[in-house]
Amino acid sequence: MSENISKIINELHIYEKKVLKSLGENENYSPEEIAKINSMDIKSVMSAAGSLASKDIIEVEKSVTESIALNDNGKKYTEIGLPERRVLNVLVDEKEIDMKNLAKSTGIENYEIKIVIGWLLRKNWAKMDKGTITITEFGEEFEDKKGNDEKLLEILLKNENSDQNSQILSSDLDEDLYSGLKQLNERKNLIKIEKETTHTFKLLEKGIKILKEGFTIQEEATQLTSEQIKTGEWKNLKYRPYDIDAEYPEIFPGKGHPLRRIIEEIREIFLNLGFSESNGSILESAFWNFDSLFQPQDHAAREMQDTFYVKNPQDCHLPGDDLVNAVAEAHETGGDTGSEGWNYKWDKYVAKQSVLRTHTTGISTRCLEENQPPLKMFSVGRVFRRETSTYKHLPEFHQVEAIVAAEGINYQNLLGILKGFYKKLKFEVRFRPAYFPYTYLSTECEVYLEEKESWIELGGSGMFRPEVLAPLGINVPVLAFGLGIERLTMIRYDISDIRMLYKSDIKWLRELPIDNGIKLD
Ligand SMILES: N[C@@H](Cc1ccccc1)C(=O)O
Fold it and tell me: How crowded is the C-beta side of 400, counted as CA atoms within 13 Å?
């Protein structure tokens, strides 16, 4: 047994020992007193006591006391009498009062009328019939007798006015006064009740045994001083062990939205490859969005159900006549590109229409018009399509667009750049032949979605056609691509629904890892 006790003692925390020792000196010490004696804070005392209690060394008893006092309003009513008492006083003489005259004949305030009638009836001091209040026999008895509530009010007032203003506790009240308290409690704003929780500690058998066995309290060092190190005193100190199982608060450091983060990563990749960054505007003319890309004016993608047309401004300015005419010619006859064009009458009013850009490829043609090759340009931007939202579709998403325009650039370079780009992002993609009106050859990049057991498209690419380049005055090959960004984010963060990226799901955002374990090479 004793061995058992010394094992328990060995495992006691210094705070537990201090609390126990104080209780050994005086079992009636309150937690506050124990805290003071040992220069501990009350929290540490309570947690040490809790720990002692969990080991059946002491018992912690909790009791709640309610102290009752009058508030200002209560004081006033105790002095002038509760409103129903003031009415009863009149009723004792008058026997009955017309409701209409109630305030006037009894001196109560108008706002008190409802309260008065309620309590007169509840206390059975009066009856009400057709607008007349009549005193009851029971009420007559109360002419010289106080109700329990009134008795309590008087006691409270007396206590307040006396010199040794002691506390009146609900537990001190006899049955009558306690029922008075209950009544008063129902009327808001007469008394205030302050609840106080007190804890008392009691030594249990095990605690007594431990005290009998005795123990020493050696202060634990929490901080070393240079003095202690110099003198070698540190060797004799007792150190508080680290509790590596201690609970810790979860921390959610601030971080960028995953979409934002991937965009930054993509920008960094292209900037590192020596691409310059360009920007366009969300509101674009059909001319740049479609026509400059040799997209015929009856092309399905230009239909209202695919593209958001803008009402205000309904039209955009077209660029200079030379370019507009050259584009018109490319569409109508192919110009001198060796192509036949689309063989229809090109309409400049259709080209003027304002649209929300459906891709960022219009930035590339603008850029080719404004700059001389050689050129390496990229841009990141939002694009809009009239699509129904699904797990992989959004009507609004981001693309990264890029072109390389230089002598000798070819389709192999295009595939090489795409492969390199996705590799940097740690994606494995496959290429498929594709069709775009503005490129030849054309390729689509796809990635496999494990969960949906299907390939999803990440973006399109190709070599710009001569019908696109000639009107822009470009006579070197140009590789181009436009890749969706949301889908990359979706796969990287293992989200099965792309819409998640646009929800304010704080829990999900909070718990996302900061770098997702993926770093740039
Ligand atoms: N603009 C195409 C992608 C693309 C860009 C450049 C060349 C070829 C294709 C899209 O939005 O899907």
Answer: 26
Same domain, 369 and 478: yes
Q: Is residue 236 part of a domain?
A: no
Q: Quote the number of domains for the chain.
A: 3
The answer to whether residue 78 sits within a structural domain is yes
Residue type, 405: A
Average pLDDT over residues 166-175: 90
Ligand 1 atom closest to 358 (CA): 11
The answer on pLDDT for 470 being more than 60 is: yes
Q: Note whether residue 234 is domain-resident.
A: no
Least confident of 43-57, 227-241, 261-275: 227-241
Assess whether 112 and 150 both reside in one domain.
yes
Co-location of 395 and 441 in the same domain: yes
Residues 13, 27: Cα–Cα separation, whole Å: 20
The residue contributing the CA closest to ligand 1 atom 8 is 461
Q: Could you tell me which of 198, 214, 211, 207 has the C-alpha nearest to residue 55?
A: 207
Q: How far is the CA of 406 from the centre of ligand 1 (A)?
A: 19
Ligand 1 touching residue 462 (CB < 6 A): yes
Question: What proportion of the chain, given as a percentage, has pLDDT over 70?
Answer: 98
Q: Is 349 annotated as a binding residue?
A: no
Which residues form the domain of 102?
69-195
pLDDT in tens, 114-164: 889 999 999 999 998 888 999 999 999 999 999 999 999 999 999 988 877
Residue 12, CA distances (Å) to 173, 256, 341 in order: 43, 46, 91
E strands, 136-215, in order: 168-169, 191-203
Query: Of 195, 210, 238, at which residue does a domain stop?
Result: 195
- Model confidence at 520, pLDDT cuts 50, 70, 90, reads very low
Q: What's the distance, CA 315 to chain centroid? A: 42
Structure tokens at 222: 């929490």
Residue located via tokens 């240079």? 226
Whether 48 maps to a domain, the answer reads yes
